[in-house]
Amino acid sequence: MTDQPRRRLVLASQSPARLGLLRQAGLDPEVIVSGVDEDAVSAPTPAELALALAEAKASVVAARTEVQGALVIGCDSVLDLDGEALGKPKDAEEATARWKTMRGRAGTLQTGHCVYDTAAKRYASATASTVVRFGDPTDAEIAAYVASGEPLHVAGAFTLDGRSAPFIEGIDGDHGNVIGISLPLVRRLLAELGVGITELWTPREK
């Protein structure tokens, strides 16, 4: 009896943070960016928007002929602050204003996840939510952080594993979700599709 070949895994995201978390968990997906126009997608709430974007990215990549037979993971994150969905700031001015609004408060990082099984033509999706409690950085600290360029490339204008980490007092929920992907949720979505996450592990080097 021979072992079944490991399923091909594709990440429909250009986020290095998501790729890094998946690799740390023993997975080694290929990266194929969806090219979805995020501004063209709308939804009533931040959580629904994150999910709609994740489903759009996964389905666009899953439709490509070169990924047939693969499992495709799509994700997208937005920060829910007072019911408003905050993605990547468009410029330094917006990032600065965003941080001055967020400091001393809490928001909810919503990350939509969609796993698409192109072999079975089925998908499973859900949103993971993590509360983020922001500290109270000074105007000078905010200016220095914005000048670093980091907040312009991440949802909510902050990261949990980068230069803004000292400005975050704590979180309630999955830290990986804030970085970009909830591994426990990915495991559950794979299970809905009849795939065990350990079946996708890459062999350990001896």
Automatic annotation (TrEMBL):
The active site is at D76. GO terms for molecular function: nucleoside triphosphate diphosphatase activity. One of its GO terms (cellular component) is cytoplasm. Keywords: Cytoplasm, Hydrolase, Nucleotide metabolism. It is found in: Cytoplasm. It catalyses: a ribonucleoside 5'-triphosphate + H2O = a ribonucleoside 5'-phosphate + diphosphate + H(+); a 2'-deoxyribonucleoside 5'-triphosphate + H2O = a 2'-deoxyribonucleoside 5'-phosphate + diphosphate + H(+). Its main location: cytoplasm. It is an enzyme of class 3 (hydrolase). It comes from the Bacteria. Its cofactor is a divalent metal cation. Signal peptide: none annotated. Its EC number is 3.6.1.9. InterPro entries: ITPase-like_fam, Maf-like. One of its GO terms (biological process) is nucleotide metabolic process. Nucleoside triphosphate pyrophosphatase. May have a dual role in cell division arrest and in preventing the incorporation of modified nucleotides into cellular nucleic acids. Belongs to the Maf family. This is Nucleoside triphosphate pyrophosphatase. It comes from Streptomyces olivochromogenes.
